[in-house]
UniProtKB/TrEMBL annotation:
Main location: membrane
A single MF term (Gene Ontology): monoatomic cation transmembrane transporter activity
Keyword Cell membrane attached: yes
Sequence intervals crossing the membrane: none
Localization in the cell: Cell membrane
Taxonomic lineage of the native organism: Bacteria, Bacillati, Bacillota, Clostridia, Eubacteriales
Lipid bilayer topology: Multi-pass membrane protein
Protein name as catalogued: Potassium uptake protein, TrkH family
């Protein structure tokens, strides 16, 4: 009997599938936005501008080179909104949703990819979790649109229905795209509604709800107010999120927004505390804010939202794990701890790796843009933090950047959205080594 040699079949990892899915949808979105029907002037949009907009929408960032409300037509805005929804839910989740709706069975390989895409702790119940994600997303976005409807219909008539739906989805998906710019006043975001308590509160709530993560919402819906039954991850996310919302808001209220009535100051402080994580809307003139406030917003942008959410950034759990590890080191403890539970050493390693990767991309991107555009480093750091953390806040330089600098921001948005570990595992593989080298000590600090 002749035995033929076995050839190992190449299989794409789930991480490579996620990246390939994002890239494919991004390219299709760019091609659609290049069509003359996508622009109000019925002109062909240059490829680099269409790709920038498509990447920003799919990566739920919000940085733009053309004002969304005044440049793009109804078709173009619809493409952008669809990309935002796909990016917020995740390409894999959307694909799995169509498979579920069509009655197709989900294979084991597909379930594994869905687990990675949703940051689920285990593969079991992943199909049920996908259904929950779709229901909770539809609920928040429709309720948000209904609450925004009176304000936008009062200002824009029937067109306000589209405005309410667009801004609700953009807020819940932490995208930061808005339609309020005009030919005479571009890139205005929500500054017109800075004193409107209903609109600013609804938008801020949608941003926070989208950034908590779907697993956290599953715990909230299952256990209600029985906090001690939540997953440890959900507890960490809720406590860290509260910490990152309250303290910056207090700083902005006391030191940044010192003029105006107490209500105006509270609304401005609250919204500017929420939006850097990672929504991209703004109700204040960001360029007019003090340098300390801008630096604080850069930190908030880099930290971002929570894993398995519509938000980007390093994630709240990464920040919390690094703080817990630091506290354990101060106390000369072997392990980091949360709520009476020990943190696995690999989580600490992953947190340090992700933080290092985001900081490297953040500084490297700013260095390239500052060199190419001859701009102050501080301004470029703000833009690259906004891009790599998929935030969308800007000091106003993005529309004036050259093609090279726009390309840098496109790369940062894409890399920031697909996630640090996804990139690392896709590039280098995720199989652990079976052998270990001899150990030797090195001085730290």
């Amino acid at each position: 009997m002749i035995q033929y040699p076995r050839y190992r079949q190449h299989r794409f990892s789930s991480f490579q599938v996620i990246i390939a899915g994002f890239a494919a949808v991004d390219l299709v979105g760019a091609l659609l936005l290049m069509l003359p029907i996508a622009a109000q002037q019925r002109c062909v949009t240059p490829f680099h501008e269409a790709l920038f907009t498509s990447t920003s929408a799919l990566c739920v960032t919000g940085l733009v080179v053309q004002d969304t409300g005044s440049y793009w037509s109804a078709f173009g805005q619809s493409v952008i909104l669809l990309l935002i929804q796909i990016g917020g839910l995740g390409v894999i989740t959307v694909g799995a949703s169509f498979a579920l709706l069509s009655g197709r069975k989900i294979s084991l390989k597909q379930r594994s990819t869905m687990q990675e895409a949703t940051a689920a702790p285990q593969m079991g119940g992943i199909v049920r979790l996908t259904g929950f994600i779709l229901r909770i997303t539809a609920l928040f976005e429709l309720v948000g649109a209904a609450l925004l409807l009176p304000t936008f219909c009062a200002d824009y008539g029937l067109r306000g229905i589209w405005y309410a739906l667009f801004h609700s989805i953009s807020a819940f998906c932490n995208a930061g795209f808005d339609l309020l710019g005009t030919e005479g006043a571009k890139f205005v975001s929500l500054t017109r509604y800075a004193g409107n308590p209903l609109l600013t509160t609804v938008i801020a709530a949608l941003i926070v709800f989208g950034g908590l993560g779907f697993l956290t919402w599953e715990d909230i819906c299952t256990y209600r107010l029985d906090f001690h039954r939540y997953r440890m991850q959900s507890k960490v996310i809720l406590v860290t999120t509260a910490f990152l919302l309250v303290l910056p808001a207090l700083y902005f209220y006391c030191f940044e927004f010192t003029a105006g009535s107490a209500r105006q100051r509270i609304l401005l402080s609250m919204f500017q505390s929420v939006t850097p994580r990672t929504a991209g809307f703004n109700t204040a003139d960001l360029a007019a804010m003090g340098s300390t406030s801008q630096a604080l917003m850069v930190v908030l942008m880099l930290l971002g939202g929570s894993p398995g959410s519509t938000a980007g950034g390093m994630k709240t759990t990464t920040f919390a794990v690094l703080l817990a590890n630091m506290w354990a080191t101060f106390r000369r403890r072997e392990d980091a701890e949360f709520f009476g539970r020990r943190i696995d050493g690999s989580a600490v390693k992953n947190a340090a790796t992700i933080a290092g990767m985001y900081l490297t991309l953040f500084f490297l991107g700013a260095f390239v843009i500052a060199t190419a555009e001859q701009l102050p480093m501080s301004v470029c750091l703000y833009e690259t933090a906004s891009a790599v953390a998929t935030v969308g806040l800007t000091l106003g330089i993005t529309p004036q950047l050259g093609v090279l600098s726009q390309g840098v921001l496109i790369a940062l948005m894409f890399l920031g959205r697909v996630g640090g570990l996804t990139l690392i595992y896709a590039a280098f593989g995720s199989s652990p080594a079976h052998s270990r080298l001899p150990q030797e000590k090195i001085a730290i600090g």
